[in-house]
């Protein structure tokens, strides 16, 4: 609160600076979700920083609100409010690169929240530049990763923009925010007893706080919003087929499907089979371990299928080295360094590896489990003639060549064994 007061005083002294709106006040572009925090922020920013608020809701596939959040932002004092649908760009330029990298932070979390942040930051910067805003604001707290992703992402694109983060400066409880809203006539759609903090988009949902803070207790049923309880999922398995072209999912069950639709459809099919629930204690960038749950049905299935496609289409050396690069890419995304210098070169490497990751993977979904049960590819490196042990298939492998190969392969060790045996006084005879 102190920083805000100082800023207000300074503002009063200076008058208006930069490109101000018609009111003569500076503008702030607020990343607005329609939730409690960012609804209250419209009022709080306007009051404490003496700025005009432009509320921007970036659509990355989060569930639609019950009311018109744009109209509500205006009623709550925003000078302008807008909804920007970036779902196609989100899938093609952010999610698919993540799939190509089999992106799982700490081998578990499909980075669903993290991967949306750079695109949100990009969209906010574009609006800020268009409306001549001096500030960008977001509703992140000082304990999470998202503040890092927004702040670092914004200044990497436009270092002149200043960041305001009310929930980082003005640390109050949810109930206090609700009281603040009531006092100032702010229209909100929040229930006092909702215990969780959630973030949702096309690639998945994150949930933290409330009962989840006890890392020993099983997540209560209420944390799950997008998946059927695996115990209650159908008793018959569901089989699906995902087609890949150069590492990108392009079809579902044999039908060419655009990315947004493919993810939405698969999310429903997999979620109905109880697939995609994740319960995890993860390391935040800010040094805190936190217990969170994720629901990412489509992500879990697509990554499993993509790995299976790669196993068939990539050489061992590429697979091994790519695992190292994948770890790096995953960290770049998690740590909010999308606009940093390493992301593009790393992406270029990963893209190159995907040139021949093309084909179809068949997956069985059953009561929460995902099992790859088939794969085929026009550029498969799996050659049944080489692999066969069956009498019915023509064996194309040159068995005699194996002996020569093994002689050469084992030669360094054989040489060393003789030399060392000699040193220990044993026979050196050939
Ligand atoms: N821990 C995850 C991440 O850093 C998810 C954060 C989700 N945020 C939330 N408000 N629940 O990417």
Describe the structure in your own words.
This protein has helices at residues 2-14, 36-48, 69-75, 87-100, 112-131, 146-157, 166-169, 174-183, 259-272, 297-313, 316-334, 343-353, 384-387, 399-423, and strands spanning 26-31, 51-59, 80-85, 135-137, 162-164, 197-201, 204-208, 238-245, 248-252, 255-256, 277-283, 289-295, 359-366, 369-376. It has 2 domains: 2-194, Rossmann fold; 199-314 and 356-378, Argininosuccinate synthetase, chain A, domain 2 (Alpha-Beta Complex), CATH 3.90.1260. The termini are far apart. A 5-stranded parallel sheet has the order 3-2-1-4-5, sandwiched between helices. The longest helix has 25 residues, at 399-423. It is an alpha/beta fold and 430 residues long. Mean pLDDT is 93; it is low at 7-18. Arginine binds next to helix 5, strand 6 and strand 7.
Structural class: alpha/beta
* Bound ions, cofactors and other small molecules, one mention each: arginine
In the CATH hierarchy, the architecture of the largest domain is 3-Layer(aba) Sandwich
**Poorly predicted tracts of residues:** 7-18
- Percent helix among the residues? 40-55%
CATH topology assignment of the largest domain = Rossmann fold
CATH top level class name of the largest domain: Alpha Beta
Give the end-to-end Cα distance, rounded to a whole number of Å.
83 Å
Biggest β-sheet description? 5 strands, parallel
Contiguous helical run count: 14
Work out the radius of gyration: 27 Å
Report the principal-axis shape: elongated
Q: Whole-number average pLDDT?
A: 93
Number of strands: 14
State the order of secondary-structure elements, H for helix, E for strand: HEHEHEHHEHEHHEEEEEHEEHHHEEHH
């Amino acid at each position: 609160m102190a920083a805000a007061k100082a800023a207000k005083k300074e503002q009063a002294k200076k008058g208006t600076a930069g490109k101000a709106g018609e009111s003569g006040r500076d503008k702030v572009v607020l990343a607005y979700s329609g939730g409690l925090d960012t609804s209250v922020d419209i009022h709080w920013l306007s009051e404490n920083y003496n700025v005009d608020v432009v509320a921007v809701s970036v659509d990355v596939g989060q569930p639609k609100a019950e009311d018109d959040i744009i109209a509500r932002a205006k009623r709550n004092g925003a000078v302008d409010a807008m909804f920007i649908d970036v779902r196609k760009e989100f899938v093609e330029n952010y999610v698919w690169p993540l799939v190509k990298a089999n992106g799982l932070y700490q081998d578990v979390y499909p980075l669903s929240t993290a991967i949306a942040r750079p695109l949100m930051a990009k969209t906010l910067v574009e609006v800020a530049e268009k409306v001549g805003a001096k500030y960008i604001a977001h509703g992140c707290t000082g304990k999470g990763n998202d503040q890092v992703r927004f702040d670092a992402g914004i200044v990497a694109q436009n270092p002149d923009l200043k960041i305001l983060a009310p929930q980082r400066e003005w640390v109050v409880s949810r109930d206090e925010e609700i009281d603040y809203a009531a006092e100032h006539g702010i229209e909100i759609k929040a229930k006092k007893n909702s215990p969780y903090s959630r973030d949702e988009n096309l690639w998945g949902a994150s949930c933290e706080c409330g009962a989840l803070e006890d890392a020993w207790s099983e997540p209560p049923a209420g944390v799950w919003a997008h998946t059927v309880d695996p115990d209650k999922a159908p008793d018959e398995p569901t089989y699906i087929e995902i087609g890949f072209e150069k590492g990108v999912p392009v079809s579902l069950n044999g039908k060419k499907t655009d990315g947004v639709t493919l993810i939405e459809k698969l999310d429903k099919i997999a979620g109905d089979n109880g697939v995609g629930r994740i319960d995890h204690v993860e390391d935040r960038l800010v040094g805190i371990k936190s217990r969170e749950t994720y629901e990412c049905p489509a992500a879990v299935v697509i990554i499993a299928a993509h790995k299976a496609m790669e196993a068939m289409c990539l050489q061992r050396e590429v697979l091994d080295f790519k695992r190292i690069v994948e770890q790096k890419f995953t960290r770049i995304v998690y740590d909010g360094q999308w606009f940093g210098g390493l992301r593009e070169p790393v992406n270029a490497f990963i893209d190159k590896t995907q040139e021949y990751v093309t084909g179809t993977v068949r997956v069985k979904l059953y009561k929460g489990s995902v099992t790859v049960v088939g794969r085929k590819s026009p550029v498969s490196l799996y050659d049944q003639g080489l692999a066969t042990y069956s009498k019915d298939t023509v064996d194309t492998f040159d068995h005699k060549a194996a002996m020569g190969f093994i002689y050469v392969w084992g030669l360094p060790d054989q040489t060393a064994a003789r030399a060392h045996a000699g040193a220990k006084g044993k026979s050196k005879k050939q």
